[in-house]
Amino acid sequence: MPVIDLRSDTVTQPTAGMRRAIAEAAVGDEQKREDPTVLELQQRVAELLGQEAAVFVPTATMANQIALKLHGRPGDVLLAEEHSHVVIYEYGGPAAHAGLLTHGLRGNGGRLSAEQIRAAAAPSSKVADQRATILSLENTHNSAGGRVWPLDELEEVVSAARELGLVVHLDGARLLNAAAAQQVEPAAIAARFDTVTVCLSKGLGCPLGALLAGSAELIERAWREKHLFGGAMRQSGIVAAAGVYALDHHVERLGEDHARAGTLAVGLAAAGLPVDTERVETNFVQVDLEPLGLERAEALARLLDAGVGLSTTIHPTVLRAVTHLDITDEDVERAVELIPSALGLGVAAPR
Ligand SMILES: Cc1ncc(COP(=O)(O)O)c(C=O)c1O
Fold it and tell me: How far is the CA of 332 from the centre of ligand 1 (A)?
C-alpha cells in the first residue's frame, strides 16, 4: 500500500467519529422500510438534491443501473458521453440489465453540447427506427479528470433533451464535489434531472453506499429494481449511519480536497511535469506521461517505490492523483517532491 495514497478518493478509511456513528446506529429491517437511519439518510439526500425521494443502495453502479432500467425499454437508445462511467466501467450494464443500446458521444471535458444531443436524437425517418430515449450525464466527470459542468451549459443540454422528449439521468457520484466547486447548493445542479445518483464512498469518506433520487413515483419503482438486483438489505442503517455522519461532517470540507489538488497541480507543474492546472476543478490532478516518454506501468512502479500511489485512467498515457479525506497538507507537500523525482525530474528527494 502506498504511504501517500492518491489513487482514488475511494481509498479512505472511516474516521473515528464515523466509526462511532456506525457503532451507535439505530437500525431496523430496511426491506420493511423500518430502518430509521436509512429512512433519515434517504430523506436528507432527497432534500439536499431537490428531489421528492431517494433510495439507499450499496453502490453507485447499482444506482445508475436501476435508473436506466426505470427509464428505458429493451431496444431504446441511451445517449452518454463516450468515456462516462455508465459507458466504460459498468460492464455493459445498460445492455445487460435494461437492454439499452448505448450511443457514446465525444465529450469536451466530459461535457456534451445541445447540438450533439439534437443530432443524436433527431426524429426518425422510419416508423420503426430505434430511438434515443435517455440521456445520462456525469458531474463531476471522472475520466475527464473531475471536471465540472458550468450550470448554464447543463441547463442548455438538459433543456434540449427535454424538448426532444428524453428522460435525463445524472450520474452524480461526485455531485457534491461539483456543488462545492461551484459554491452552489447540490439541488441547484440536481433538481433538474429525472433521477440522480450520489455516492457516499468517494469524497464523503464512507465505507460503502449510494443513493438514487427522483420523484416519489420513480423511487417507488426503484425499490422493486433494488430487490431484483439483490440490493434490498436488512439492518443497513449500520452503513447508512456513516452516510448521515458524512452529510454532517464531510460535505463542508470538500473544498479542502479541491484546494489540495490545486496545490499539488501547481507544484507538479512547477517541477516540470505535464500537468494542466487549468483543468483541475475539483479533487483530481492528471499527469500526462507522453512528453516524458514513460510507460504507465513503469511510472506507477517507480511512484509506488517512492511511496506514492497514483492510478491509471482511460487515456493510455495519463495518470491521475486524487485528493481525499485521508490526504493532508503535509502529504501534498511531500508528493510535490516525490512525484517529479520518481518520474525522473530533478534531484531524487531523500525517502
Ligand atoms: C462517476 C462515477 N459513477 C459511478 C461510479 C461507481 O461507483 P461504485 O464503485 O460505488 O459502484 C464511479 C466509481 O468510481 C464513478 O466515478
Answer: 24
